[in-house]
Amino acid sequence: MSDNYRNGRVWIVDDDSAIRFVIDRALTKEGFVSEVFSDGESALKKLQSSQPECIISDIKMPGIDGISMLKEIHRDFPEIPVIITTAHSDLMNAVRSYENGSFEYLPKPFDLDECIAIVKKAVTQYRKNAPGTAPGENDASSLSPRGITELIGESQAMQEVYRVIGRISHSNVSVLIMGESGTGKELVARAIYRHSTRNRKPFVALNMAAIPQELIESELFGHEKGSFTGANSQRIGRFEEANTGTLFLDEIGDMPMEAQTRLLRVLENREFYRVGGQTPISVDVRILAATNKNLPEYVKKGLFREDLYFRLNVISIRIPPLRDRADDIKKLTRHFLDNAGKEMNVPPKILREDALEILRTFSWPGNIRQLQNVCRWLTVMAPGQIITPPDLPEELIHPDKRVSSASTIPPEQAPVPEHHAEAAPETERHNDALCPPEEQSQTSPQSQRGILAGSAATCTEWEPILGNWVAQKLTEGNIDIQKEAMDTFEFIMIKEALKYTHGKKLEAARILGIGRNTLTRKLQEFRERFKDN
User: pTM (2 decimals)?
Assistant: First the structure.
């Protein structure tokens, strides 16, 4: 990026003096001229006499909030890029920000370097486009928030999903949604639809894996009376049903090759023939597709058309698995327990903190769908109103006793079958995450304590070593040994993950399957131990 941002005039609007100070200092260091405001009213008043080249604003502030301020700025000064930041990061805030013209949306806590890079980009764009230009594509005041249940979660892993949904709210381009089974791909598709300009038009969902191969074309395009055995009347297909609206094709990777060819023609020409029909039918349909398959590998194997893949993959959204969203477990569990209570007409159960911690550390091979089913099970089976660890299903308390499918393969890593069939689940890989196979050494007195002292221990000896350590502690009369073991285990895991990622916290959190905020909290807890190591 060129230095076309030098001496850029940037305003910082935030009621938190510490945030104002940190951003102000960082901007000044990068050569910007910044000015700070503790509320939106004072910033709007100053705008009448002078204008900056970029504004960074919080959402929740005393008086006028950031979104309302954004609306006024975008109405009167549409050329000024506004970067919205918030600690209350959810889908609705992200969409409202983009709908009302924000240049970018940054959930707190954000990386300061990322913030500075966005400010540089914003000022450069402001200077490139002369003031007074027409509002950009982000002007969406005609859209109003819909009172429908939204996606749940504020974890870092979900923020990029929200940002993409917000950015494409005005577009009619095709979107390919990728993610493991049970991650909520249809929920994302419906969120895209609700925040699109087609939200008052039809939304039609079709699961390609649930339709017999010989009926797929009839289901998609309809058929004429007498076109095949059993076609006793004319039938309207899903494309016609979704005309002027949105068609969601779930499990698109299971679509047969012949149907892929016809779908490609419709996307290119926007017209089709019913099965047995002679008259072309024109349609205006936005396509959202979803898959848990590795489509690039399917293309290489000849199982999926490359041209159709690129036609569908104009914008792609990758949905994170639940194991990468540990910070969202509490809110999701509360939501599902409340819903289960309403379904069964009973008071919602409450999850105790120690039981919640077990849920946070579980790998969730079935993702959101599995968590939802567990909450229903607990609503029926838990004996008391408060759910404790013994109330949890056995598979959560002792995941090692489940059949070997604890690790669900991410779509981008999944092996592609030779034939169009579901790939067998991968063998459980949790041992490999603990120590590499070459560290298969003989047990020694030192290695028996290694699991809790930081030295290497062989994967196959994990339980015996831990058992020996526990027995020794009990013999010595020690108490509260579980906390000591868990603390040491967590410390070693975090230390090794940070070593592996060369100190990159976000990457370490992703590898460990915890949220960035959780990692930050743990680092604070272990700061004295890190000094000694």
Answer: 0.55
